[in-house]
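Today's session is about reading a structure prediction critically. Students often jump straight to the picture, but the first step is always the sequence itself: look for stretches that repeat, for charged clusters, for runs of hydrophobic residues. Only then move on to the predicted structure, which in these notes is written as discrete structure tokens rather than atom positions. Here is the chain we will use throughout the hour.
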Amino acid sequence: MNKSIATISLMLLVGTASFSALFSPTPSAAQPSASAYTPANAHAGEQVFLQRCFQCHSVNQGEVRIGPSLFHVMKGPKAVSAAQVRIQLRDGKGKMPPFKDILTPADVDHVIAYLHTL
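Below is the predicted structure for this chain, in token form.
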């Protein structure tokens, strides 16, 4: 009797793990942990921002260029999520072109880390 209970428990455990693996986000779709927002990553993100974003976006409150200021874009009641930033960088929006062929996944992670510091 104990052997059959152990077998059923093992089958349930394996089934649950398989189900979770099927429906959990892939590592590329998963959001970085808070530890990904390190000073080093933010600094790297600032460099990417200066090269690729600064022409159109300010980091000063209220300063509008071609695109809006990104000051506090990830803070406060109107904060955007990292997922939203990823989608907009990948696909573009309005006058903003897509950057999917320009920025690497690491570049995007670094820009998000930098935006968290603003």
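Discussion point for the tutorial: The CA atoms of residues 48 and 63 lie 20 Å apart.
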